[in-house]
Structures are given as structure tokens and as C-alpha cells.
Write a structure and sequence with these properties.
Blueprint (H helix, E strand, L loop, with lengths): L2 E11 L4 E9 L2 E6 L7 E6 L4 E4 L1 E3 L17 H10 L2 E8 L7 H11 L6 E7 L17 H12 L4 E5 L9 H14 L2 E5 L3 H13 L1 H4 L14 H5 L3 H18 L2 E4 L5 H12 L5 E5 L1 H5 L22 H12 L5 E2 L8 H4 L19 H11 L5 H15 L16 E11 L18 E11 L2 E5 L2 E2 L14
The protein binds manganese (II) ion (2 copies).
Length: 479
């Protein structure tokens, strides 16, 4: 038979094996894995000699056009998903944030409309935020019974996962609300994705920074010179506030039986608490980390422009980064996402004199796969199969994407031809986010996606985007 596309002479890397093979594609799906050099008949042939042929990567944590007090994140669904594609990511899972009074399904419909220009396939997590404001402070609001009931509608509409926050005024759930929402997650057989920090402790420390800066920064040397210092972000979100919240989140998951993914773990002591739970047999709580916690440290926050690197949870010291690589390689951490949350320099400058006004987030949707290859595989911390497991296979399993994340007959033909011989400087000018800065400026990675195929269609050719806006499809996820 004649195939639509043949990827020839490459080295196929999956979570289980590394072997030379040709990959034949027909009708948007992988049709066959053939012996290398098969010379099979195909309408189009891409030679992948000296390249890895891997499943399209999955990034299940990013924020495109997210509403915040500092305005929208600067990447919309077109620029964000195009940057994803150029970095080898062929599926993204973003979020739906309902407004108070708006039903979850109405919010989903509005978000789907916004997502139409996407160039890669996408899913959506449904956020569960407080929707009742009981008083003038608006600080500790509540989740209504109506919201809890609406979770089943969202689930039936293809949101197989629910996002919850244990920090951030406005988004933070009380322990009671977390428990109620997790009970529903357990009932549905869905997945809870949780931002885990102790919001009350953090809020108190942030207020204290305004009244007793010397005390809040007593461990910092040299002392901070004012509220504009970026390191205050880390000092007011200490490791203890993350570790405690991880233990509390896991307790709630165990009490309710809810499956839980703890988002963006970069704090060693907090992640070791997850490891301890796993060691005593808890097999339904998992951990995600992100490249920023494996490549950067809190020294970025000590720069003059340290506010750019303010993300939550914060970047940690080198010792945490070293420990996190071990927790990645020993599988305490299950998967790596970007938490791409792009705010430009103007938005970040809102907090130039007060770190509390800086919108939190760093970019990374385009750089994730190559950073983990460069700093993980090339540095000998993980192997090629680990790389594919962390960035492709486990995200597909965790987030109910059975057609994605592996190379096998019948799977969607989402494939990346990754050239380990390509060098790429990670400056803003070399990347495709709408952002005016890069968190990795000055770093050059060895290894970059050369060609990217999504459902059989070549959308990146020789490092250039050649796909069409709007070709991405919404994936209704069901566990
Ligand atoms: Mn978060
Ligand atoms: Mn996030």
C-alpha cells in the first residue's frame, strides 16, 4: 500500500525502547512501524537519519490568554500553540476559568470559541474557584453547591480534570471547599490538578513584608533594599509553606479517594513528602515539575530585573534543583509540563517598586522538550526513554489522551523528528512566543525539533512553522 508519509532511517524513541525503524503514516494515524530503510511507497518521505523520532510531546499545563489583574497573558491560542508546535509539542491542555455566576459549561463554550485558532490539538482542565463572596474583604470566598453540582456537566463535556488552588487571594479554596470538590472528583473518577502552597501563611508573610521588611528578609544576605526586590517573592513563599500544603493536599486526597496530580513541584522537601506517601503505598497521587525548577535557581530573583522570574511556587536554591533531578530520575516525579504563563516586561514592571504587584509566571512552552533533553539526557541525569516518558507518555496517560504520547500502529500520527545535532540559542528573538523576553536568554541547547507532524500533517518543516491556524481540535477527555 502507499502511505501518506514515511519517516525513514530515524531512531525511534518511546518510553519503553530505542530502536532504528521507519514510521509509516496514513489517514492521520500511524499505520506501521517498518524495518529501517524499508523504502516503503509513500506520497511524501522525510529522512530522519541521525535524528530521534519521538511521539509529539504533551504539555498539560500552560496559560494562554488567561485573565489576570495585570491583563491577559500575552500568548493567545494561536501564538501559544504555534510556539508549542515549533518546540515539538503537539497537544496542550489549558484551563477554563468561569466567572462568578457563569456556569461551568457556559465558561467552557466561551473558552472553546477563544481556542479556535489553535494549531495543535488541545484539551481543557476546568478550574474550581470560589464563586460566593460573603463579605467586603472578598479574601476567603466559598465554592457554592451549584458549582459542585456543575462539575458533572463539565466532566461530561470532556473536562476530565479539575484545577484547584490552595493559594492566591481570589482563587484559594478553604480546606472545606477543597474537601467538597475532591469528593466530587472522586465520585466522577476525574483527576484533581492542584496548586499546592499554604495561601494563608503566604498572604500573612506578604503583608508583613510591608510592615516589617527586616524580619521577613532576615535570612537574606546582603539585606534587601526595598519592596521591589524579587527575592522577596521566594522569602514570602518559603519551602515550609509548600511542604505543609503538600501534606495537607495529600491528606485530603486520601480522605476522599480523589486522584490527584500536584502541579509544579520544585521544592525538594515538599517533593520528598510525596515520595514518602508513595513509599507507603499511595498510588493515586502524582507529581509534576517544570523545566524552570530543573534549570534555574532563586539567583534569578536576585537580579535587578528579578521580577521577570517570579513564578509560583518560586524558584528555589541550587540544592533543591539538584535534589529535584534525583526525584525526577527515581520517578517520584511523574511528568514535566511547562506552566507557560507569559507576562511581558511592561506587565512585570507593575511591581517594579513592590514585588506583590508583579504578575506571576515564566514562559516555556517552546523550550520544554529541548531543555529536558539538554539538561537531562545530555548531562546524563536521565536517559532517552525517561525523556519521552516524562514529556510524552506519562502526560498522555495521566490526562486521558489515549491516542497521544506513543508511537504504535493506530495512534494519532503526532510525531517529532528531533535533531540532536541542532544548536539553538534560547533568546526571545529565536523563539515564537509573543513575549518580549526569554527566561533562558544566554543558554544554547544542543538538540531541537526539526520536523513536527500532527495527525499526519507536517506542521513544522526544517524548523519553520508551515501549518494553518485553526487546524487544532478539541479533545473531549474521559478517563
Ligand atoms: Mn499554579
Ligand atoms: Mn499554572
Amino acid at each position: 500500500m502507499a502511505y501518506d508519509l514515511l519517516i525513514s532511517n530515524g531512531t525511534v524513541v518511546t518510553a519503553d525502547a530505542v530502536y532504528p525503524a521507519d514510521v509509516a503514516i496514513a489517514a492521520g494515524a500511524i499505520a506501521a512501524i517498518l524495518p529501517s530503510g524499508s523504502r516503503a511507497d509513500a506520497a511524501q518521505i522525510r529522512d530522519a537519519a541521525d535524528c530521534y523520532v519521538i511521539p509529539g510531546a504533551i504539555d498539560a499545563h500552560l496559560h494562554q490568554s488567561m485573565r489576570t489583574a495585570a491583563g491577559l497573558t500575552v500568548d493567545d491560542w494561536q501564538t501559544g500553540s504555534t510556539a508549542a508546535a515549533l518546540g515539538g509539542t503537539t497537544t496542550v491542555v489549558d484551563f477554563v476559568d468561569a466567572l462568578p455566576g457563569q456556569s461551568l459549561t457556559d465558561a467552557l463554550a466561551a473558552r472553546l470559541e477563544q481556542a479556535r485558532p489553535a494549531v495543535v490539538d488541545y484539551g481543557l482542565h476546568m478550574s474550581i474557584q470560589p464563586d460566593i463572596d460573603p463579605g467586603p474583604t472578598g479574601y476567603m470566598r466559598r465554592v457554592s453547591e451549584t458549582r459542585i453540582r456543575q462539575m458533572r456537566d463539565a466532566f461530561d463535556s470532556g473536562c476530565a480534570s479539575f484545577k484547584m488552588y490552595m493559594a492566591y487571594a481570589g482563587n484559594q479554596l478553604s480546606d472545606a471547599d477543597l474537601f467538597r470538590a475532591l469528593r466530587e472528583v472522586a465520585d466522577l473518577g476525574a483527576l484533581a490538578c492542584v496548586h499546592v502552597e499554604n495561601g494563608d501563611v503566604i498572604e500573612t508573610l506578604r503583608q508583613l513584608a510591608g510592615t516589617d521588611l527586616a524580619w521577613v528578609s532576615r535570612k537574606e544576605n546582603p539585606p534587601v533594599n526595598g519592596l521591589g526586590a524579587g527575592i522577596l517573592h521566594a522569602l514570602t513563599r518559603p519551602p515550609e509553606s509548600e511542604r505543609e500544603a503538600v501534606i495537607r493536599a495529600m491528606t485530603a486526597a486520601e480522605l476522599t479517594g480523589a486522584r490527584m496530580l500536584i502541579f509544579h513541584m520544585g521544592c525538594a522537601s515538599a517533593t520528598e513528602a510525596l515520595g514518602a506517601a508513595r513509599a507507603r503505598g499511595v498510588d493515586f497521587i502524582w507529581g509534576e515539575t517544570c523545566p524552570q525548577y530543573l534549570v534555574l535557581t532563586d539567583d534569578c530573583l536576585r537580579r535587578e530585573d528579578g521580577r521577570l522570574w517570579m513564578c509560583s511556587p518560586p524558584l528555589r536554591p541550587q540544592a533543591d534543583q539538584d535534589a529535584m533531578w534525583k526525584l525526577v530520575s527515581n520517578r517520584t516525579i511523574d511528568l514535566i509540563s511547562s506552566d507557560h504563563c507569559p507576562f511581558n516586561q511592561t506587565q512585570k514592571a507593575l511591581g517594579i517598586n513592590d514585588f506583590r504587584k508583579v504578575p506571576n509566571g515564566v514562559p516555556g512552552v517552546e523550550t520544554r522538550l529541548s531543555l529536558i533533553h539538554h539538561f537531562g539526557v545530555r548531562r546524563g541525569r536521565i536517559d532517552l526513554q525517561d525523556w519521552v516518558r516524562l514529556c510524552c507518555a506519562r502526560p498522555a496517560e495521566m490526562h486521558a489522551l489515549p491516542m497521544k504520547g506513543h508511537i504504535a500502529p493506530g495512534a494519532d500520527a503526532d510525531v517529532v523528528i528531533f535533531d540532536p545535532g541542532l544548536s539553538k540559542p534560547l533568546s526571545a528573538g529565536e523563539l515564537h512566543s509573543a513575549l518580549d523576553w526569554s527566561a533562558y536568554d544566554g543558554i544554547t541547547v544542543d538538540g531541537w525539533p526539526r520536523d513536527v507532524i500532527s495527525r499526519g500533517e507536517l506542521i513544522v518543516r526544517d524548523g519553520r512553522f508551515v501549518g494553518q491556524p485553526g487546524r487544532g481540535r478539541f479533545i473531549r477527555r474521559s478517563p
